Amino acid sequence: MASTIRVRAINSGDITEVQALIQHPMDSGYVKDAQGQTIPPHFIQQLTFEYDGKAVFVADWGPAVSKDPYVKFAFKGAKKGDDLKVSWIDNKGASDATTAKIQ
Amino acid sequence: MADLDFSDLRRLILKGIGLAALTGLGQIGFGLPAAEAAGDKYPEDAFRQKSDTDAIKALYGRGADASDQIKLDAPEIAENGGVVPISVMTTLPGVTSIAFLVSENPNALAASYVIPDGTVPSVANRLKMAKTSNVIAIVEANGRLYSATKEVKVTVGGCGG
User: Fold this and answer.
1) Do the chains contact at B116 and A57, CB–CB below 8 Å?
2) Which of A49, B101, B118, B123 is most buried, judged by most C-beta within 10 A?
């Protein structure tokens, strides 16, 4: 399965800025479809970024995060060429993960 | 079984069975296996709360004091309530967590972030807003809780109309 995660991690000096865009419906459970049926909640609950075996950023999300969620943050101590692991799990137990190189 | 092993095993099983089969298995709301990553437990109870005060209490166990050291960026007017870009940065030292709440949403807590040592206390994300509402950013720093609030007017609501 192609990854749902697009991540860009750019290092400049001590700071690495990370932007991630994930493909996910993030259904809130409040919206009805064309037939009037409520679309059940389906959203990422936790998104984790790990560097050197430790979490550098953890997002705990509810259904109010927009569809195809985007997040940006920055952390210190990484270098160009290092790996950044990104993984998520949603409320249905589905998950995805990818590893990106810090540029 | 260690939690980490269970997660890996679960992922393996999921890939084997196929997500399509699982989707049919039932509508699971908030109450799914709390994903644990590096010791962080998904704050399910906080996400269930309706009001912002209750959500903050559930998440942190106390209330927050307004701080002018938090810079909350949100548009004055959001034309699409489904995608409102909101970001926060703070000069407060010792930040361990940042959270965003939308007071008028059915459940106020939108997102919560763990900020480990070495991570810059600044987050940008995109949230859904059901209607014109206060957006509250909470920053936990050195064991204390701080907040900044901004009203965002919403022209087309983010709850699917």
Assistant:
1) yes
2) B101
Q: ipTM score here?
A: 0.96
The answer to whether B32 contacts A92, with C-beta atoms less than 8 Å apart, is yes
Question: Using CA atoms, how far apart are residues B43 and B35, in angstroms rounded to an integer?
Answer: 10
**pLDDT, tens digit, for every residue of B20-50?**
444 444 334 444 333 344 457 999 999 999 9
Which tokens hold the place of B74?
């949100």
Q: Smallest CA–CA separation between A33 and chain B, in Å?
A: 10
Q: SS3 for B8? A: helix
Q: Where are the alpha helices (DSSP H) in A1-103?
A: none
- Give pTM, 2 decimals: 0.84
Contact B114 A58 (CB under 8 A): yes
Query: Most B CBs within 10 Å: which of A15, A51, A52, A73, as the mutation test of the B interface?
Result: A73
The DSSP secondary structure of B34-96, one letter per residue, reads --EETTEEP-HHHHH-SSHHHHHHHHHSS--EE-TTEEEE--SEES-TT-EEEEEEE--SSEE
Across B140-156, b (16+ Cβ under 10 Å) vs e yields: bbeeebbbbbbebebee
Specify whether the CB–CB gap between B121 and B71 falls below 8 A.
Answer: no
Distances (CA, A) of B99 to A31, B26, B45: 24, 30, 14
**Where in the sequence is the domain holding B92, given as residue range(s)?**
43-154
Q: Does B67 lie in the same domain as B114?
A: yes
